[in-house]
Amino acid sequence: MVTTPTPATNSVPALQVSSLEKIYDGGQRALNGINLTVQHGDFFALLGPNGAGKSTLIGIISTLVRKTAGSVQVYGQDLHQQPHSAKPLLGVVPQEFNFNNFETPLQIVTQQAGYYGVPYGEAKRRAEKLLKRLDLWEKRDDASRLLSGGMRRRLMIARALIHQPRLLILDEPTAGVDIELRRSLWDFLREINAAGTTIILTTHYLEEAEQLCRNIAIIDSGDIVTNTTMRALLSQLDIETYVLNTAGDLTKTSVANLETRQTGDDEMELDIRKGDSISEALAALQSQGIEVMNLRNKANRLEELFVRLTRRENKASQQDAAA
Amino acid sequence: MSTETLTTAAMPSQARTNWVAYKTILRREIIRILRIWTQTLLPPAITMTLYFVIFGSLIGGRIGEMDGHSYMDFIAPGIIMMSVITNAYGNVVSSFFSAKYQRHIEEILIAPVSNWVVLAGYISGGLFRGLAVGAIVTVVALFFSDIHIAHPFITITTVLLTALLFSIGGLINAIFARSFDDVSIVPTFILTPLTYLGGVFYSVSLLPELWQNVSLANPILYMVNAFRYGFLGSSDISLGIAYSVMLAFSIGFGALALYLLNSGRGLKS
């Protein structure tokens, strides 16, 4: 008794949010009728400062928060009108741990499969694959309260994938995990995205969004302030910052016509404006006796844009309020 | 591992999803009850043994007969029923509230499980514990009394309806509860007094007429007496009224619980 999922065509957006509005019981307005489309196969970043409305949006998509108005479609299936066909297409990794601390990883993922109608035998087979892939198989029979923070994060990812969703939403999936584990999770997410799972990611690590995502929306004060490709957004930057490892006495040297900041005994930052030549800048440094031993792009490009965009919106709203 | 196998979903029908989800919730509840058996199954056995020793053997011997039965035989069905009520109720209220408190109820809420399946799953868990404890206490009772089941159908249907009713009651309590204090208020201030005043230890015919009439407003009186009729063949209450009360409360509580789940009260913001 198995039916093939109807919304499997790639032409249907993975997620279509239309005029979505949320006003909480206390009158707090969290979403101001936002529109958002995420295409099938995308790796999409949803960013925003704390309190911007990200968690409310994900809560509504998870059906844990009730919408005030608007609609959400997952692969063409209305989440609130057709929940039984829309929900199986969706997997959610929440920001906070929300599993039973007394249950084991194997119990948690097989039970989750059961809630989606996956029989126990099949659920165990899938759980073994997922837990092995996420290095949790050895811990499968331990109480989940005994797992480390990184293991708990991976357990929530395994749980969200056990019913094989087409759209995976991850809310801060790498919060509090070490760099090595974060990189391995990135690899895993790239892997499942390449295999066809659409991914929406919220993160406070903007480098993470820049590394992983092709498209991006920034939400602030309940509105989508930017919705574009990562490349287009980054191209808005008119300054690139480079970190230089140098040899030479930086303290005695000022470099004319260059924006530089000394950040260490043998390290400085160099801002290059759009259209300016980096070769000329390096030559100018060399003429001042500063030899550049190594150079890398400072990974704060998205961060700068993020701060600029959300600050601009805050100013505008403050002006509106004042008016 | 091939990631392809993780991304090609085959969607089961809604009926199958609900059936598997129901079995999953019930299995989880049973595993929980058995895992913490020292908290779920053992205490009622010890408590009820004390009831039989103190009220039945020590005090009961001086009381003599009640409604034509030895006092031990008279109180045995009531004590069994009392354990069924408290454990069916306690299981659902603690399990569902813990799921709310730890937020793992969200595992079910985000899944395509119908609310009536959630209701049925948790109620079945309550039934399992209520009946398991009832069976344990019955075995204990056999060591102290000489009870036999006079009317098996009445005994079984009464205990099933009572466990069902109080399982649903536990779920409603858990939905409204915001803290662990809220979980214990109803059992302490409502359930226990109604159970003690529900004719477990005495026949209401012993009461003055006024208090007999007041007792008729206590729904537990009907359950205890119908259950006692199943064992002893005698009761203070008409069976027809007892079944009507149990069915009416079960349907009313069931409808309320389903309404609360559908509305998302206490579960969704």
Strand content of chain A: 25-35%
Compute the separation of the termini of chain A in Å: 62 Å
Number of helices of chain A: 10
* Number of DSSP E strands of chain B: 3
Uncertain runs of chain B are 1-9
Helix vs. strand class of chain A: alpha/beta
Level-1 CATH class name of the largest domain in chain A: Alpha Beta
Helix content percent band of chain B: over 70%
Counting H and I runs of at least 4 residues, what is the number of helices of chain B? Answer: 11
Helicity range of chain A: 25-40%
**SSE pattern of chain B:** EHHHEEHHHHHHHH
Blueprint (SSEs and pairs):
The complex is a heterodimer of chains A (323) and B (269).
Chain A: E1 2-3, E2 15-23, E3 29-38, E4 43-47, H1 54-61, E5 69-74, E6 77-78, H2 83-86, E7 90-93, H3 105-115, H4 120-133, H5 149-161, E8 167-171, H6 179-194, E9 198-202, H7 206-212, E10 215-220, E11 223-229, H8 230-235, E12 239-247, E13 259-264, E14 267-273, H9 278-287, E15 291-297, H10 301-322
Parallel strand pairs in A: 4-9, 4-10, 7-8, 8-9
Antiparallel strand pairs in A: 2-3, 2-5, 5-6, 10-11, 12-14, 12-15, 13-14
Chain B: E1 11-12, H1 14-35, H2 37-40, H3 42-63, E2 65-66, E3 69-70, H4 71-101, H5 106-109, H6 115-144, H7 152-176, H8 180-196, H9 209-215, H10 219-232, H11 239-263
Antiparallel strand pairs in B: 2-3
Could you walk me through the main structural features you see in this protein, from its secondary elements to its overall organization?
- The complex is a heterodimer of chains A (323) and B (269).
- In chain A, the strands form 3 sheets. Chain A has a 6-stranded mixed beta sheet with strand order 7-8-9-4-10-11, with helices on both faces. A 4-stranded antiparallel beta sheet of chain A has the order 3-2-5-6.
- Chain A is built from 10 helices and 15 strands.
- The model of chain A is unreliable at 1-8 (pLDDT under 50).
- Chain A folds into 2 domains: 15-234, P-loop containing nucleotide triphosphate hydrolases (Rossmann fold), CATH 3.40.50; 236-301, Alpha-Beta Plaits (2-Layer Sandwich), CATH 3.30.70.
- Chain A is an alpha/beta fold.
- Chain B has one domain (14-263).
- Helix content of chain B is 75%, strand content 2%.
- Chain B has 11 helices and 3 strands.
- Chain B has helices at 14-35, 37-40, 42-63, 71-101, 106-109, 115-144, 152-176, 180-196, 209-215, 219-232, 239-263; strands spanning 11-12, 65-66, 69-70.
- A two-stranded antiparallel sheet of chain B has the order 2-3.
- Chain B starts with 10 loop residues before the first strand and ends in a 6-residue tail after the last helix.
- Chains A and B meet through strand 1, helix 2, helix 3, helix 4 and helix 6 of A and strand 1, helix 1 and helix 5 of B.
- Strand 1 (2-3) of chain A pairs antiparallel with strand 1 (11-12) of chain B, so a sheet runs across the interface.
